[in-house]
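Posting here for the record, re: adenosine-5'-triphosphate.
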Amino acid sequence: MANRQKNKILHRMLHRASYWLLGIPLRLKIMGMVLGIIFLFAVTSLYLIYGTLLRNMHDLLEKEGHSIAMELAHQAPDYLLINDLYGLTENLKNTVRNRPDLRYVVISDRAGQVVAHTFGGGFPRELLQFYRLHSEPTTEMSLRLIPTTEGMVWETGTPIMQGDEGRVRVGVRENAFRQQINQFLHNFVWNSLWVVLVGLLLSVYLTWLITRPINSLLTATRAVNEGDYRITLEKSTSDEVGALTRAFNDMVKQLALAEENRREKEKIRRDFLQKVIAGQEGERKRIARELHDQTGQTLASIMVELKMLENSAKEEEIKRRIVSLKQAITTEMSALHNLAVTLRPSVLDDMGLAPALEVFVNDTRRRHQLPVQLTMVGFGQQRPDSATETCVYRIVQEAVLNAIRHARANEIKVLLERQQNQIRGVVEDDGQGFNPEIITSTDRLGLYGMMERAQLLNGTLHIDSEPGQGTMVVFALPLMPGQTAIQPTEQTND
Ligand SMILES: Nc1ncnc2c1ncn2[C@@H]1O[C@H](COP(=O)(O)OP(=O)(O)OP(=O)(O)O)[C@@H](O)[C@H]1O
Ligand SMILES: [Mg+2]
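Prediction output follows.
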């Protein structure tokens, strides 16, 4: 269990470390890699060379001590047999004088008593103490390392005549060798630092070489992302980055082509839609006029005829029937009028958006017995262009009729504001609301039509609603240049 926990923590830490490493900029990654390799190479070389040098130094010291000790062990019996300790000491001193690494030579008798040595001012007490504490076999060769105030001394011990005549001890200093090694290490570290510096400069250059095309790719990708497809990158290298650049250029060409096709299709769609809407409006206008001028006039003349018939009729039964016919025709005329107004109110063409909306709102309020509040700000005498007027009228009409048909609202508010360069509008109801995301254009046309109309005039429209929260249709339509707003005047119609 504890192991699993540990593994989990380790895994998480590794994951974080790799995430952090991947997040480092490419430039730093390459420089870090070059420096890391140089550093690793320098440290490994230093470690190996230092180890080899130390081993060699030890071998050398051992061999030197050994050969001197053997030589002196060979010469010593000549002096010892005639008890010429003075001659022996002189011989030892000569040996020490001729070899700078040699620190001392000590000769002791069988009992371990020092009989001759090369120390000028008496035998050092510390060395004596050391010999007492660390005894060694009398008949065998020995090698040991003795720490002294002058540094480490490699002491080789050799028996004289198998130990019968005592023992020779030769102390060789390692200081000189150490100094050489340290000098070498010092030079090595300095050289490594130079290599690091050159490596750093090289890696900066290398990084620049690698990241330059990548940075251009990045800048170009951002430009393409913002819709600029004119960009073509220079093919600077023939490696993978060069291949990527070529692929990028091809991709941008394809994207430019696709974008052109899309724009063309969009233009065709918009032109077509504009024509359909214009045709629809024209047709509605024609039918509305027809209903008013033709059918309405015919019904009106029938009414006059019926009035005359009513006046001339003698029988009560006929009179009653004529009255009933007149009533039916009056109802039909009113329905016809409403239909004509809904199709295309002539007031929209004749007097403009504000009066047309007032007529529409009053009519709706009367017909549906519902408070509809209309507030218009900034709509003075100068009228927007007819396409914008029709678009605003149709959006408000659809939004209000939707609120009546679907929302079960208690109140509907319409707010329109004409600003310097746009018309902004809000149609709000306090009804049951709905989820606008689940409405598709296939089965319902009202919301889709509102959006299409707004987009065709380069405007925006969005529906803010959710079940139980009422609905808000918010739109903005740009005004054609030159249609400047006049001093805002507020008209509220409840
Ligand atoms: N104000 C609203 N309150 C609640 N639901 C609404 C509101 N407006 C629209 N809806 C919902 O969105 C649906 C789609 O509306 P849309 O106007 O596109 O179609 P429709 O009114 O049903 O038919 P039509 O195509 O004749 O307009 C409606 O059927 C209704 O469920
Ligand atoms: Mg609708």
